[in-house]
Every structure is written in C-alpha cells, then in structure tokens.
Amino acid sequence: MTADQNFDTAIAGLPADRASRPSWVASALVRQLDLYRRLEVLSRQQSDLIEDGDTDRLLAVLGERQVVVDQIAAIGSALEPIRQHWEGFLGGLPGATREQLRELVDSLAELAGVVAGRDEADRRRLEERRSEVGRELASVARGRSAVLAYGGRAAASPQFQDREV
C-alpha cells in the first residue's frame, strides 16, 4: 500500500473529494481558532476571578471552559488523521493554501501557549491560596487550644456549701 493509499484510508471520515479536503481542514482550523479565542477570554476571566476570590463565578467560568475545551477536542479528533500525515497533506497543496493552513496552525499554537501559560500561573496562585488557608486554619486551631487551656471553660459550680441550719 502506498503512502497516498494509507492516507486515504486514514482519513475515511473526511470528504472523499481530495480537492475539497483543504477547505474542510481550513474550516475546521478556523473554527478551532475561534474556540481558542473564546477559551483565552474565559482564561482571562478565570484569572480575574481567582484574584478576586469569587469562587461561585469561577466555577461558572470553569464550566463554560469545559464546554469550549470539549468542542476543541472534538475538532482535534476529526483532524487527527490529517495531523498524522500533515507534511504529506501539505506537500500536495498549492503554495497559498499550504501557507494559509500553516498560519492557522501557528496561530492555534500561539494562542494555546498563552492559555496554557495563564492556566499554569492560575494553578500556582490557587495552590498558594490553599496553603494560606491551611496556615490560617492551623492558626485558628492553635488559638482555640490556647483559649481552652487558659480559662476557656465555664466556671464550675461550687461542690460544697456552708449553710447554717
């Protein structure tokens, strides 16, 4: 089996007409780029909400992000056969089409890097915040122990009484 036959077999889910494949791939990459732009906006919102300590809204943004990530992953799965044979696929395209697809992929990689970098910074901030809360809880526990050790108990009622009968 030739490389072309392997490629044709691998991309059975793509348009059968070889001439329409580049536009299908370009459309998929443009859609993925739009989703990454949305993800980048949500990533900025996530950072702001972490900074503000707004947990409820942060959870909502994380839910929105998951929907976008699932859509990106679905497109990625559809493009997987093309990615496995990317250089061969590009090699058979006219120069302008090849350049357009490369630019789309470069833009995707750049935006994905921005989001990943921000997510890593957010992860570190959340980790620091969790450590701060742990230290505060430990401090509260030590304070409570000290209060109990030095008079935190209610005064006991007298056990003996002097009475005159």
Report on the structure:
- It contains five helices and no strands.
- It is mainly α and 165 residues long.
- It is rod-shaped, with a radius of gyration of 30 Å.
- Helix content is 79%, strand content 0%.
- The model is unreliable at 1-10 (pLDDT under 50).
- The chain has one domain (3-148).
Describe how the helices and strands are arranged:
Blueprint: H1 3-10, H2 21-52, H3 55-84, H4 86-91, H5 95-149
Helix pairs in contact: 2-3, 2-5
Please work out how many helical segments DSSP would assign.
5
**Structural classification:** mainly alpha
Biggest beta sheet attributes: none
Query: How many domains make up the coordinates?
Result: 1
> What is the rounded Rg?
30 Å
Rounded to the nearest angstrom, the distance between the terminal CA atoms is 116 Å
